[in-house]
Amino acid sequence: MAQSPIDLPSRLLLNLKPWRNATHWRVAFSGGLDSTVLLHLLAHLAQTHALPVLSAIHVHHGLQAAADAWPAHCQVVCDALRVPLHVVRVQVQAGASLERAARDARYAAFSSLTQADDVLLTGQHRDDQAETLLFRLLRGAGVRGLSGMPAQRALGQGSLVRPLLDVTRAELEAYAQFHQLHWIEDPSNQDRQFSRNYLRHQVMPSLTGRWPQAQASMARSAAHLREAQELLDELAQIDLARCVTPSGFAWLGLPSLDLAALAGLSAARQRNALSHWLQPLTRLPDTDHWSGWTDLVAAASDAAPVWRLADGELHRGAGRVWWLSGHWLRTPQIHDEWRDPSQPLHLPDNGHVMFSGQTPAGPLQIRYRQGGEVLELAGRGHRDLKRLLNERAVPAFVRGRLPLLFRGEELLAVANLPGLDGSAQDGWKLHWQPTGEDQGLR
């Protein structure tokens, strides 16, 4: 009989020490070797240690016939360990990479179930880390990608933790054999058309045959690169602190940065700072796509350049770069007559407007700029709206959705712009609250 890796439980407890006060530990339980060992370890540790509430989550992708039997297998294992099991069925979106689509669906399910103070535990180990490093190296990843899988990261309202990253697959197999555990062997893991399987079965054996410590060395390199990424993140925070300056258009509620401060950095530091800023907003562009940033910075001062990214757009205006997503990328619709000006008026895809002070006499309507509008100002006479917006350096992306108050064909006010937003003589102002939708935060 195989010898038990007796230090594995103590190593696992040590790795999980920062999360001992969590409300709930949820194990991502595929039924495979890694997650079976992790669940078994935790279930037995819970008998002798005060641990958070333990449960398991099995995600059923429905991608192969064999997988239909896996939820039942997982239920048998969990019943034997007296661990509650939650089976989640997901739809995998068709795409170029089935591996990535399945992973995205799986982690979307995990995220939705991870509540505040919850920890989702996954079974990735040191061999997986080495494969990840090599896989990303072959795809041309940068420092962040080559730092491998983090031991912890935010997920949903809680955290994802990988407590076995310092454990080898051989150690997990030894533990499973000693305790006579049964696990699922996914047939797709042998299909070498998938890149990771090719690396695992074809490339890694050759590497470790020549360099037995290859996987340990790769994991160590990933740790070095994680440290390098931490330094880059610290530098980005220093640089961004100079770019997050007050804006005259803070009421837009949009993330923005001072363009001059950002453009004053070296090209490498610009990319580093901007990547750090964009990371919670959108999937980051690859190296070739960064030319869009260069074009945005280099555009003429009177231009309105746009850099389109996966989940939104960067615009330039009023000396700043702005992040737009969601409703901000949809054209607002002209609204009907404002029948009850004493109540806020909802604007489709554009927030709402309301009055402060005395409500002006009607009939009133909110419209959007078409060109050629003229506003009468006290002491200045009739002024072209385009010139007034230029004087106030209103960003181009705002101009087409800035609410304009009309009475018949007379333009009475432009929301939120001091001096244009109402009548001091009659004691009223028009206020616009742009849409409160999260700006692409993921």
Keywords:
single chain; 442 residues; alpha+beta; Rossmann fold; Chorismate Mutase Domain, subunit A; six-stranded mixed β-sheet; 20 strands; Rossmann-like_a/b/a_fold
Task: Give a short overview.
The protein contains 14 helices and 20 strands.
Count up the domains: 3
Q: Determine the CATH topology of the largest domain.
A: Rossmann fold
Any guess at the CATH architecture of the largest domain?
3-Layer(aba) Sandwich
Q: Indicate the overall shape.
A: elongated
Distance between the termini: 48 Å
The profile of the biggest β sheet is: 6 strands, mixed
CATH superfamily of the largest domain: HUPs
Count of DSSP E strands? 20
β-strand percent reads 15-25%
- Rg calculated over all Cα atoms: 29 Å
Helix content: 25-40%
Q: Which CATH class of the largest domain is shown? A: Alpha Beta
Structural class per helix/strand content?
A: alpha+beta
Count of runs of 4 or more consecutive helical residues: 14
- Average pLDDT taken over every residue: 89
Strand numbers in spatial order across the main sheet: 3-2-1-4-6-5
Give unreliable regions as ranges: 437-442
Protein name: tRNA(Ile)-lysidine synthase
Catalytic activity: cytidine(34) in tRNA(Ile2) + L-lysine + ATP = lysidine(34) in tRNA(Ile2) + AMP + diphosphate + H(+)
GO molecular function, one term: ATP binding
Pfam families: ATP_bind_3, TilS, TilS_C
